[in-house]
Design brief:
There is one protein chain. The protein is of the alpha/beta class. The chain has helices at about 45-60, 75-85, 115-130, 150-165, 175-185, 205-210, 235-240, 255-275, 275-285, 300-305, 315-330, and strands at about 10-15, 20-25, 25-30, 65, 95-100, 100, 110-115, 135-140, 165-175, 190-195, 215-220, 295. It has an 8-stranded parallel beta barrel with strand order 3-4-5-8-9-10-11-12, surrounded by 5 helices. Strands 1-2 form a two-stranded antiparallel sheet. A two-stranded antiparallel ribbon has the order 6-7. It has one domain: Alpha-Beta Barrel (TIM Barrel). About 35% of the residues lie in helices and about 15% in strands.
Length: about 350
Amino acid sequence: MTSTTEQTTLNAVPFGTTDMTITRVGFGAWAVGGGDWAFAWGPQDDGEAIAAIRHAVEAGINWIDTAAVYGLGHSEEVVAAALKDIPEADRPYVFTKAGLVWDEADRSIAPRRVGKPASIRREVENSLRRLKLDRIDLYQMHWPAEDGTELAEYWQTLLDLKAEGKVRAVGLSNHNLAQLEAAEAIGHVDTLQPPFSAIHRETAELLPWTRAHDTGVIVYSPMMSGLLTGAFTHERVAALPVDDWRRTSPDFTTNLDANLSVANALRAVAEQHGISQPAAAVAWALALGGVSGAIVGARSPEQVDGWLAAASTQLTPDDAGFIADAIIAAGAGEGPTRP
């Protein structure tokens, strides 16, 4: 894509060995998939979602991360609607994922992790149709398959789709070190998408491998699904819609007090920098060496404005130490306490 003047205002970095250069933050489209499925965020307003995506692109964000399973196809449709009237030269890159197959007859059932080549090929065609694209910029295996398909088989399928021109680059999401090594032995892993935040820090152990192999890294949930934004309390969790997956997550229940202590530390750092707390949470994740970008969700233009500053904020060693002390004192999460 050709950048506009507005799109050059945000910091951007090379995305591994792909031919893409991406902004340090990208728009995450999980929540905008809407309600009424196993991992929903409750009912959503499509009009607000479309406005949020367009606002992010106008602000300079040059990539969107979605997945076929988000809203059971609906997130990809919302992304397509948002990009419909944007000139081709100004459109952001679109990243999506395969490997989670749902039951059309019962939306409440958790999707199955399927890696069969024929299934992935059906998925890519459906995603291209919903997104109204001729080629997907990044196609990722969402989770390791649990249907008996070997990693070598589903990874080769993604590599074949790249060779055929259906997709521009291919990556893995939620895969461990041994799985990365197995895939790399077959064909280059262009990108990795792991979770990473000041609470869930375990996947930092993958970064030495990705740096050594020039694999681009986009982390998800840097705000811990809203938990680190300053918007959450016990009362807020109790008031979440009944179909919001966070109501029963240990991060929002059993471990809530410890996690809110980390959120409070991020608020203090945000005040020091004159930025929002969501932006501080994202900046913490971006400070980890080897992270290309962070996926950040939004359901309104105002939420986009809340974290946009993360793309150009650099935390100081003192900031990192202050947050590390809070993590240790609270006993929150696992993994390195400093980015």
